[in-house]
Every structure is written in C-alpha cells, then in structure tokens.
Amino acid sequence: MHFSIAAALAAALAGPALAAPGVSPATVSKAADPGSSFKVDKLVTTPKIPPTPDVVLLVDVTGSMGSTIANIKENLAQVITTVRGDQPNAQFAVVSFGDLDDPNGFAVVQDMTSSTSLLQTAVNSLVADLGGDPDEDWINALYQISTGAVTFRTGSSRIIVLVSDAPSKDPSGGHTLEQAIDALKTKIAARVIGVNVSDLDGKGQATAVTSATGGVIIGSAAEEVSKAIVSGLKNLDVTVKPNVVSCDAGLTVEFQPTSTTVPSGDTVIFKETVKVAAGAVQGAALHCSVRFLLNGAPGGTAFVQSVTVRVNRVGGCDKCIPQPGQNLCHITTSCAPTPFGTMCLTRPGYKADGAADDDINVHWRLKWPVPGHEHRVAVKPGTSADTLCDPKHTGPDVCQEVVVADCKSTAAVGQGVPAQYDDNSRTQEVIAAGDRDL
Ligand SMILES: *[C@@H]1O[C@H](CO)[C@@H](O)[C@H](O)[C@H]1NC(C)=O
C-alpha cells in the first residue's frame, strides 16, 4: 500500500486546530407558536479516536518478530498516552499468538486494563520465539478474542490491533477465516487494524478481515509499528446517532439523517426539526434532552444537547367593528384602533372581570411597536372590564400581570400607533369618566 504513515501523522499533527469534539450548538432556546416547527443545524464533531476504546494488542511472538516486539516494548507507553489524549478512558489488553503446534500458540497475557504499568509488564514479558513453519494461527486468536477470551466493557469501541509478519493457517484451531469474521462482527462488533510488518496479507486474509470489520491495514516498517497503531486508530469509522433522552409533552425533535458514519475526527451535520404540538401548554417552557451516540455508546457531556422552547400564547386578538350598532364592546371598554386592528380596550388600570390573568381568549395585552401603551388591556367584545389591575404594578407597568398576545400586525411596520388612536373620543370619554390614578 503506497500510504505514508509519516505523512499522515504529520498532517494529523500539523493540521488546523479543529473544533473540540461535541455538539454545537449545545443549547437551543427559542419561542414558537403551538402547532409550529423550526429547524436547527447541529454540528457534531467526532473525536479523533472512537470513544471508549477497548484495544487488544494482538502480537505475533514467533521467531521473526524480535525487532517489532522490541519496538512495541519501547513505545507502548507513548501509544497509550497518545490514545488517552483523545480518549481518556481507553483500556488495553495484550494477547500473544504463534503457532498452535508450539507452546506459544495463544495466550491472554493481560486482560483489558487501564493500568499502564500492568500493560508495560505484559508487553515486556513478550519474547519472540519458535514458529517453524511460515503461517501462524491468528485466525484462532481472533476467534478466541471474539468468544470470551478478553473482557470488553459494555458499549466500548472494540479494536484489535493485529501485529504480524505472516498469514494465518486456515482453518486455525478449528476455526475458518469466515467463522472468525462472523464472530468478530456479531459477538463483539470489533474492528481489526492489521499492522503489516512484511507479509501479513500474503493470502489476502488480512484484507478480508479488516475490510469486513471496518478496519484498515497499515503497511509499516518495524520501527513504525507504534506510530502505525495510533494512526490506524485515528482512521476508523464512527457511527453517530442522535438519541432522544427525554422530551416534555408537546415537544418532539427529529433528525435528518437518523444516523451517519464518518471517519473519526470528522464533523457531521444533522438537520434537527423541533415540533411544538398544537395542544402544547401555552406560556410553558418545554425541554428536550438529546444525546449523540458514538458507535452506540453515549459520547459524554459534550455530546448532549438541550432544547428549550417557550410556547407562545396565541389566541386573543379578537377585533371589534367601530361602527354604530356593530360595536359590541362592553360599556366599560371602547372600540379603538391599535396597530393590530380595532379592539375593545379597557380604561387604563383595568382588566376583564372574573378572568385569569393568562386567559388570553378573554383579555390580553399587545406588543405595541412604540413604547407607552404596553399597559393597555384589550378584551373580547362583550366582556366587562371593571376589575382593577394588581396594585403592585404602577405607572407604565400597570396591568403587566395580564399576558401579552402575539397578534399579527395589520399596520405597516414603523407606522406606529395610528394617529386617530389618541383622538378616539369614546376612549377619551371613558378614560375621563373612570380613570384610575396611575
Ligand atoms: C505489506 O508489506 C509488504 C512489504 O512491505 C508489501 O509488499 C505489501 O504490499 C504490504 N501489503 C499490504 C496489504 O499493505
């Protein structure tokens, strides 16, 4: 393979600083009407090394592997440090294999552990030895690892780094290449990285097992093996899947795509659609919590997203017709123009009788485009409005306990309050007759 590990590493190290792994934006906060929806683009930057790695170093210990094993001993601590730099909870195991006809056929030297010293001790104990005939028994080793020889953590990313300079016997220990591939995929969902010391892929077996498991083969000189392991870990695919942890009633989120697979380190864009149910509680703040799974496991707090939607109060905004005989406003209110059409307005400081402050279908305040009228309360035609607003709010803040309706403007933007508003004789009259000291 004409692939320069040195160049790939240099590119990885010297490349522009990428976004930290996680989801952006992590929080979405927006107001929306009941029955509406909106879209948000979510960028999920995946970690350079897939999450929660459980890495098996599967090392050929036959006679020809001496210099490669020496290199692994020397560089193991650096490999562990590099991997932990991207994924602090990475664990490793050390498994050796040779020829099953010899005593060194298969051994779990160190089961999965986070202890660097235990791993170093295990690697230091490896001795290149024996192995008379050219082919080794790594198909058996892959099969054994897939069927209980190594203890993997639940939800971990399983990676087997096969370091060898020769093809495997097939069948090996009674297991065919096909059976080993099937066990790797179905029993532990592990990916195999082949470190091709010289003739690993001599029979195409390494290509078969790495491509079937989503791994890679790295051609490498012996002294480059440790770098190759780190580089190989960085080239693995990661599947990103949004997963809704919880959503309040009335709020749902959907993602497009529902799942996607990219090389680890890449950034994925999900189109998120947030839907507010028609019956969502008006005025409520509704929450959803969504996490992004990486290879089926939670990616940690950086991959959790929170959505908050404040549900607009809709309704209210009932109009009146300012014509004699058609004006149905109660005598305590007057039909007056507003930027949102003519409505029955109360006297300043008054609100509807017997209505809850948030009963927007009976009375409401308006989002005036110019300041100074925010305190005015509008009521549904026919509603009597002889109730004093809460005395704890005064002046321009009076009646602020009554909710604001999101009426659609009927006046041109910037036009402000129609001139005739303040001239409305009936309003003035009512104000004069029943005004409250503000
Ligand atoms: C493995 O390495 C050998 C020797 O460097 C090379 O000839 C061969 O093409 C490599 N195979 C793969 C699949 O990388």
Automatic annotation (TrEMBL):
Keyword Ribosomal protein attached: no
Gene3D superfamilies registered for this protein in UniProt: von Willebrand factor, type A domain
Domain of life of the organism encoding this protein: Eukaryota
Signal peptide start and end residues: 1-19
Example of a GO MF term: protein serine/threonine kinase activity
Protein name as catalogued: VWFA domain-containing protein
Record-annotated VWFA domain positions: 54-196
Main location: secreted
Cellular component, GO, one term: cytoplasm
Location of this chain's protein in the cell: Secreted
Pfam families associated with the record: VWA_4
Keywords: Secreted, Signal
InterPro entries: HMCN1-like_VWA, Thr-specific_kinase-like, VWF_A, vWFA_dom_sf
